Predict the 3D structure of the following.
Amino acid sequence: MKYDFTTMLNRHGWDSIAVDMKENELWGIPKGETLPGFEQIPMWIADMNFATVNTVTEAIIHRASHPSFGYFIPSDDYYQAIIRWQKEGNGVTNLLPEHIGYENGVLGGITSAMRVLCSDGDPVLLHSPTYNGFTAQLERNGYKIVLSPLKLDENNVWRMDFEDMERKIKEHHIHTALFCSPHNPTGRVWERREISQAMEIFRNNDVYVIADEIWSDLTLFGQAHTPAQSVSEDARNRTVAFYAPSKTFNLAGLVGSYHIIYNKYLRERIRRYEALSHYNDMNVLSMHALIGAYQAEGRIWLSQLKTVLEKNITYAFHFIRENFEGVRLSMPQGTYMILLDCSGWCQKHGKSIEELQQAGIRVGVIWREGSMYHVPYGIRMNLALPHEKVVEAFSRLKQYVF
Ligand SMILES: Cc1ncc(COP(=O)(O)O)c(C=O)c1O
């Protein structure tokens, strides 16, 4: 393997909340003491314990070597890098620079879109399990969360419940849906026909769609991402989509997400809203990081990363099934998260999910319990670590926790 996915980066002191967990109300830091002698293994927040691709650091260093950092507007290279990346990765062929706009974080973009699409206090349709960032942003901005639970089918695959979605849309007079694709925290990669069916429901009920496709590069086991905007002409116009190189290349700290909005009316309204605060402006180093990432070498790095993630997920899946009685999980098709349903284990052992989480933290497995994802007996684990660390974490869980 050309790139190093086996060394555990020492991130202490290098601006990493994953390992230097200082209390902060925004981040839902797992609380609890780790016993002396157990090194902490960060398996909670969604960033990776791998070095990013060298073309990112080279691009930043190259730009930083010129000692002028004045005002700027995004370069043509920036737009072309995104257009190329979306074409090669997602088969998007008709993307123009005017459809693309910088976002100060996908969550920031989603919030702006909501401000334009919703009236104050409006209900918004989401699936549960739910990414905690969605819940937090909706609550902070005073919107009403209406959850349509995903369901496991007979093959243990998470599915949308289309009837439930439509019923709730009608019952609550919903006109905005927040659609996560691929889905965090289940790791489901939606098939084209599933997205089409959801879009049909949205069309029939005048629901605008905010598609969070931040995980779209991290589809695994041969799955392909289908952009929500690609399933029909109507979907293209009713959907605002958000992307970023941050999950793919571990760049969250640089902040550099973007939207794709084909519908001119929505695009202009959202951009106008974003201009009000004057805060939605790009950092020049973040622009160069994206350009460094979205090129041929980034693609090769990504394909090697995926091999590592597939190995970790496969290992964890089988280990859990063979060793942790009462814990269930569905095999993720994308992301680097796994979502455990520990209800059977908790019932059998008379333990709460918080006690289970604490038992893991005591032996250095820093994981997150599921209430923040609307999964009462859930635990979410991040597997973007060197394989050896994943093996170590599961062996501690077997020996001391389950
Ligand atoms: C589905 C989803 N959307 C958005 C984000 C956050 O994106 P950003 O840092 O660009 O706001 C995350 C981070 O984990 C995520 O999982």
Notes: The chain has 14 helices and 14 strands. The longest strand covers residues 123-128. The chain has a mean pLDDT of 96. The pocket of pyridoxal-5'-phosphate is lined by residues 46, 105-107, 131, 133, 180, 184, 212, 214, 244, 246, 252, 257 (CB under 6 Å).
